[in-house]
Amino acid sequence: MRTRILVAALAVALLLAGCSSGGTRDDGRITLRFQSLAWQEESVEATEELVEEWNAAHPDIRVEYVQGSWDSVHDQLLTSFEGGEAPDIIHDASDDLADFAYGGYLADLTDLLPERLKSDIPPRGWETVTFGDGVYGVPFLQEPRVLVANATWLKESGVRVPTPGAPWSWDEFRRVTKRLGGDGKYGVAWPLKEPVSATLNLSLSAGGRLFHRGDDGRVTVRFEEGDEVVPRTVHEQVNTDRSASPTTLGSGGSDTLPGFFAGKYAMVPLGFSYRQQIVQQAPEGFDWQVLPAPAGAGGLTQGVSPQTLSVAEDCPHKKEAVAFLDFLLRPENMVRLALGDWMLPTGSRALADPALHTAEHGWATGTALAAHLRPAPAQTVRGYPEWKDKVATPALQEYYSGAIGLDELRERLEEDGNLVLARYQR
After folding, report:
1. What share of the chain is helix, strand, coil (3-state, %, to 5)?
2. What per-residue confidence (pLDDT) applies to 3?
3. Residues 230, 254: Cα–Cα separation, whole Å
4. Cβ–Cβ contacts within 10 Å for residue 57, how many?
5. Which residues neighbour 226 within 8 Å (Cβ) at sequence distance 6 or greater?
6. Count of Cβ atoms closer than 10 Å to residue 69 Cβ
7. Beta strand 89-93 with 307-311: parallel, antiparallel or unpaired?
8. What is the pLDDT of residue 381?
9. pTM (predicted TM-score)
10. How far apart are CA 327 and CA 395, in angstroms?
């Protein structure tokens, strides 16, 4: 009996050791667990190669690559934090960090980050990971929303083709899509299965902000004139002009690509990284191009939630974890990660790399938009995930489909939304 108890106790101890955050082995070697959310083949390959290069150069500080998933990262991290099993180095997005930062799950990196890294990323990047007086991550990849267009269709129609220097206004964009649609085809297909971030981030171009922080630090939702422009444009394209496909409103970005290639839609608003899928999937001879999203009172400004790298508060080797981040985000390495993910680096030196300024596949258009990217409106709002899931997503989906009007949309975003946020601000 005693033997069985000892064996069982040893098994439990080994299990806990295997699940715990990084630690130090008997031989003195440190192991850090790095949970990466890279998912495209090129980005996974680039990340794994960099981990291998670090391990080869740092035999006493080994980084263990752990594959995570964007689909479940918030709930998975919350469970691992509460169970004391979080990875040491955490890949996430900045709009998912607020509750973790305020909850004490992430390490404040203010005094740990090297000056090189702090000075290379512009202040607007650091704003996305600053909560209260602390810095709880490093923003490293970002992507603007762009219009991916059927170049042949646009050329034959004779419409003015926008550039970052002379973009369409939201009104002109609506007129163009109306001109391009007809005969069972549509000027645009909006993939709005997840409508909130697209709506809020593009609304910055029209002067919208939606979330307003008072002198007491409390956040309230106010759906004002600038916030109306983007949702009203989409609503009118779908329900009045019939220039936008109603069937793609419940689709993800990838779901629209077969119809785009088949000539059903002239344009699709997508994140910049979708270009990789287009290159891989487009039929031979399909001519496409990247256009800037429309501009409004705020110009080309749009919100962005960069991908981030954080260190768990429970990590026993924070300095070593930050040293790995510094290596991973050297300018030349940041370029490798950006090319692998078909996104833009946040670092100024990496963004200047010639490989990111070519006309091929619209890289130059994307880099021209980088200076206009600002922290997403919901960046520091506690309770945003619940507000998004329970209030904003269903309200916007119903408005875009024509089930409710603008006044009801405003009422639900403000009244229902403020009730949700109030619970996080007591």
Report:
1. 50, 20, 30
2. 39
3. 22
4. 9
5. 203, 206, 207, 208, 209, 296, 297, 298
6. 10
7. antiparallel
8. 87
9. 0.89
10. 43
Amino acid at site 50: L
Quickly tell me which residue has 């078909």 as its tokens.
342
Distance CA 137, CA 117 (A): 12
Q: What's the pLDDT band for 378 if we cut at 50, 70, 90? A: confident
Please tell me which of 7-11, 130-134, 188-192, 421-425 the model is most confident about, judged by mean pLDDT: 188-192
Q: Which distant-in-sequence residues (6+ apart) come within 8 Å of 46 by Cβ?
A: 38, 336, 337, 339, 340, 341
DSSP state at residue 166: B
Please tell me the distance from the alpha carbon of residue 101 to that of residue 87, in angstroms, as a whole number: 15
Distance, CA of 284 to CA of 261 (rounded, Å) = 10
User: Which segments of 240-330 does DSSP mark as H helices, in order?
Assistant: 257-261, 275-281, 318-328
- Residue 300, pLDDT above cutoff 50: yes
Q: What is the residue whose two structure tokens read 């269709």?
A: 153
Structure token pair of residue 335 = 């370029």
**Side chain identity, residue 139:** P
Give the type of residue at 377.
Answer: P
> Mapping DSSP to helix (H, G, I), strand (E, B) and coil, where does residue 227 land?
helix
Strand partners, 267: 149, 188
Q: Which residue has the tokens 């002198």?
A: 215
CA dihedral 325, 328, 334, 338 (to 10 degrees): -100
Token pair for residue 282? 């487009």
Q: Which residues contact 328 (CB under 8 A, 6 or more apart)?
A: 50, 54, 140, 309, 337
DSSP 42-107: HHHHHHHHHHHHHHHH-TTEEEEEEE--GGGHHHHHHHHHHTT---SEEEEEGGG-HHHHHTT-B-
* DSSP type of residue 255: G
Which has the closest alpha carbon to 342: 137, 35, 40, 37? 40
Instruction: With a cut of 90, say whether residue 1 has pLDDT above it.
Output: no
Element (H, E) at 392: none
Amino acid present at 240: T
Sign of CA dihedral 51, 325, 124, 210: positive
